[in-house]
Amino acid sequence: xxxxxxxxxxxxxxxELLLDQYHGWLGDYPKLGIWPDGLYMSxxxxxxxxxxxxxxxxxxxxxxxxxxxxxxxxxSVSFDAPASEFTLLSEQRQAPAGTPPTGTPNYFSVVWxxxxxxxxxxxxxxxxxxxxSTFTGPFITIxxxxxxxxxxxxxxxxx
Length: 159
Fold this sequence. Notes:
Elements: H1 10-19, E1 25-35, E2 38-47, E3 54-63, H2 64-69, E4 76-80, E5 89-90, E6 106-110, E7 117-124, E8 134-142, H3 147-157
Antiparallel strand pairs: 1-2, 2-3, 3-4, 5-6, 6-7, 7-8
């Protein structure tokens, strides 16, 4: 939960927002992305227990308009990725590169499970009806790979 602070340092306020999201788990290696409808973040979730290990990757969306306006509480949505995924990366689009059309989902990608494929997830948030927000995927894109050519290049390069 986001806690509003009587502080003029917005980064401190956002750091508290991020820290409050974990609910007893350790969110490691946060990665942030900016999208027209929100700030998106992913973390690798670990159990706090001494014997606890990796649980899953988690994707978050925070209502950017509310954060920028300094609201004391900010809407957020989170979804867990399958435990087999690790370190999701969020898409990021800002001007001058142009912004995606309104309603376009934010994309998260990961290459953890494959050496020649990218798993892509679509995170769509509806700030007017949070319960209809979705996190779908993976949609897997296969990239061509030639290990023989790679090995030959490495040998020629002296690696």
